[in-house]
Amino acid sequence: MKFGIIQFPGSNCDLDKLWVLQDVFKQEARYLWHKDTDIGDLDCIVVPGGFSYGDYLRTGAIARFSPVMKAVADHAAKGKLVIGICNGFQILCEAGLLPGALLRNRSLQFRCEHVYVRIETQKSPFTCAARTHEIMRIPVAHGEGCYFADPSTIAELKKNDQILFRYVDASGKVVDTASPNGSIENIAGVCNKARNVCGMMPHPERASEEVLGSADGRVVWESILNHLRGVESVPESVLAGGH
Amino acid sequence: MIEPNITPELIADHGITPEEFERIKGILGREPNFTELGIFSVMWSEHCSYKNSKPVLRTFPTKGPQILVGAGEENAGVTDIGDGWAISFKIESHNHPSAVEPFQGAATGVGGILRDIFTMGARPILCMNSLRFGPIDGNDEAARRNKRLFAGVVGGIAHYGNCVGVPTVGGEVYFDESYEGNPLLNAMCLGLLRHEQIARGAAKGVGNPVFYVGPATGRDGLAGAAFASRELTEESHEDRPAVQVGDPFMEKLVLEAVLELLQTDAVVGIQDMGAAGLTCSTCETASRAGTGIEIDLAKVPQREPGMTPYEIMLSESQERMLVIVQKGREAEVQRILDKWDLPWAEIGFVTDTGLMRVKNHGQVVAEIPAAKLANDAPVYYRESKEPSYFAKTRAWKLSDLPSLTDPQKVLPELLASPTVASKNWVYRQYDHMVQTRTVVCPGSDAAVVRLKLAPPPAKDRYLAITTDCNGAYCYLDPYTGGAIAVAEAARNIVCSGGRPLAVTDNLNFGNPMKPEIFFQVREAARGITAGCNTFGTPVTGGNVSFYNESPAGAIDPTPVIGMVGLIDDIAHITTQWFKNHGDAIILAGNAVDAADPYLGLGGSEYAKRLHHIKAGLPPHLDLATEKKLQDAVLALIRDGKIKSAHDCSEGGLAVALAECCISRHPARNTPALIGARVDLSAFANGTRLDALLFGEAQSRIVLSVAQESADAVVAQLQAAGVPAAVIGAVGGDALEIRTGASACKWSVNELYDAWWYSITRKMES
């Protein structure tokens, strides 16, 4: 499958995305420069983490105006996949491709730690390979990851099953203290209504190899690949032995 | 503007002595003008010239088969790690700026060390930092100030490192009264490069154009190097303009552009504009190449109008680089700089005159022989005298220390001591996982990273990295303290499964003009040298920070050692925490060191924290014993016999055992606690209980191994000449320590709570 990874000035997880897609999952992956207008034919665009344009104003506030973002919007409008991780999530929200916004962490400090994240639905290209309510042990690293949306948007997200990931405790319960940032309803990631654009604060690329202490994040990449290959669903028995 | 006349007062204001002024006149064959005086003052400051430390630095072992670029040759040393790959690493202080403006002071400290590394052609893959502050207990004015400095420094490091995308994988933080008003920030960076990628800071090739890359020059950081070479006073906050302001986003662009530039062979030489900015980068590159350099300041991008040549030459505005380009290849360089939207300007060219000639709008404003400016600062052999405080500290006897009555209460108290307590409040603010290299996150003896080499070599290698120094030990005996800093660093590397490879050092001391301070410098350096020789770890470079004095006096001497080790196989990677119920716990080394008159309690955290005593002698260290221990433990790790290894340091054996039980932390709010039953009765006879539990005897490692291999491991250690004994077993939900007649039992939850949340509680109260 063909992946494009956007490089904004200040992106710093671009190399990690290339590594996980190319070296770990053996996929075709290349960088997209922020000034690119023609991005060619791609199956999935990855908007990586980092501090695009320094993020001095507000995370993602400047990146959304990059020439490449027009191409991303066109790509998404065709129903093709876009996944934004960390700063990528912030940018997709700023660009209006995802609902809601990411505010400063409740602690007012940057947080980098492993957290538990529950996959809330398998009905998305980004989670379709997951077991029911699968829990990932996965790193976060952000200063502004506190997801916020107004009550009607949240109601809409729930109604449409758009909440893909929530912070939970080790036993899988949604409790306030499980969230590293104070996000509303412990939301860690969402998708758009058409379900082809996803944003998440946790870093699946940092939990895709055993040597890094967790391979739980692989399920996100495996879901994307399954979806692109047209694998509708995988029997639970197969998945149990998988990641 | 009319330049001031050169008067004796002006010369003194520039920190130049009458003798140095005569030397300058000798070099120039005339009196310097104002700009030239400024140039000499920064280049001949301690920060740039090492004029007071050179005789000491020359004593360090700097050679070894692994050294590709040695100490002092370039911005940073380069060390071979095999398969055509190398690492470049260095530690550098930003103490004075951090004292005056902690957030920006720390941020720009990180920025500066990153530039030193990528200037070598290496991609920075990790940062570490070694920090010292005054106590943060309570809420009086001093504690509040210390907390503000601590929070500011940590915030500044996070701000810069996180944005640039280089993981901060570990370090150390100590709290002690001596750092009150003069905190220490030593930032370390390590980069990865191919042998053939090593870049040089030399202005070669007469006629080659000189490029200025990066943001415009402003008045910030004016003469920061000179500022760093003075004692801090009540008025130091007025020097705030001498602290630079960092822009990590710009640094990230410069980093990427420089690495892309160095992939071409269009760049002949490169140097960052760090301390002493444009001055240092021009004269040093010319000096290294044996050439001259001519620049016109009118071409230098300037942030504000009306800047004088003096200000432009001395500015320490951040994120700027000097690049010497192969003539005819300018367009290629410009294309890359434009791609990254970086400001640049061609400001001059390489000459064969040997002169650093600075023009402003065509008029010469400074003309100085470059090599003499860069290399001919005077070298001072400072007077040294044994400190008079030794008489007092050494008059103290162990028998003066009241005997320990309630260990039950003491262990949680020591675990909550900020120096011992978990530093999660610090490292959770640092992105320590970006670049997906971090195999062992902060919280074990050393950080471990993978290299992700491309193409992958036959066998993956890993690096273990640590920084260490106990200032109290160095205060009580600088020689032993210096040697222990190296020994402990090596022990941490070994406990992580690595072979010690090389070190970088950051010598933090008071004013070297004071003979008692210089004694500390000289002795600590002697200790470091002895340590480095023992472990085969040459010094690849580093930094000296003098004048760390506040009105209350000098800091404890703090020669920080940053050590890197190589781990040859993923199976060797070892962490400090106990793994499985039923495993045997082995103490390698003597429980109590009979050769130490203070039984490991001199300068100990126990004596300081519980009894407010910093006296006696530091723990006794025998380097040969230490080496035997480390070799034996590493051999066992490589044999696959060891499940966990943790060195005994601050807080002694009881703290080390507790940390083995409580430090595994797989995820937020989810520690993996495990208990242990330990019996120290065999060592308890005739010794002090406080020494046994909390003494900081050196050359000790706590191991855990599968029960069935315990006897063999003990036998193998003893055969190597290392005292060893099974002291207990892993399991349960409490740490029990039996010491002859008495026994203590702590729930691991209680210990964890005291240790994990201590700093957070203090910072949030």
Key traits:
heterodimer, A: 243 residues, Rossmann fold, nine-stranded mixed sheet, 6 helices, 11 strands, disordered C terminus, B: 765 residues, alpha+beta, Phosphoribosyl-aminoimidazole Synthetase, Chain A, domain 2, seven-stranded mixed sheet
List the topology elements.
The complex is a heterodimer of chains A (243) and B (765).
Chain A: E1 2-7, H1 14-24, E2 28-33, E3 44-47, H2 67-77, E4 81-85, H3 87-94, E5 101-103, E6 111-119, E7 135-142, E8 146-148, H4 151-159, E9 163-168, E10 187-191, E11 197-200, H5 218-229, H6 236-240
Parallel strand pairs in A: 1-2, 1-3, 3-4, 4-11
Antiparallel strand pairs in A: 5-8, 6-7, 6-9, 9-10, 10-11
Chain B: H1 8-13, H2 18-28, H3 34-43, H4 46-49, H5 54-57, E1 67-69, E2 77-82, E3 85-93, H6 95-100, H7 102-118, E4 123-133, H8 141-164, E5 168-175, E6 184-194, E7 209-213, H9 224-227, H10 248-263, E8 267-272, H11 277-289, E9 292-296, H12 309-314, E10 321-325, H13 330-339, E11 344-351, E12 355-360, E13 363-369, H14 370-375, H15 389-395, H16 407-416, H17 424-427, E14 438-440, E15 447-450, E16 462-468, H18 471-476, H19 478-495, E17 499-508, H20 515-535, E18 539-545, E19 549-550, E20 553-554, E21 558-567, E22 584-588, H21 605-611, H22 623-638, E23 644-647, H23 652-662, E24 676-679, H24 681-684, H25 689-694, E25 701-705, H26 710-719, E26 724-730, E27 734-739, E28 742-747, H27 748-756, H28 758-764
Parallel strand pairs in B: 4-5, 9-12, 17-18, 24-27
Antiparallel strand pairs in B: 1-2, 2-3, 3-6, 4-6, 7-10, 7-11, 8-10, 9-11, 12-13, 14-15, 15-16, 16-21, 17-21, 19-20, 22-25, 22-26, 23-25, 24-26, 27-28
Helix pairs in contact in B: 7-8, 7-10, 8-10, 16-27, 19-20, 19-22
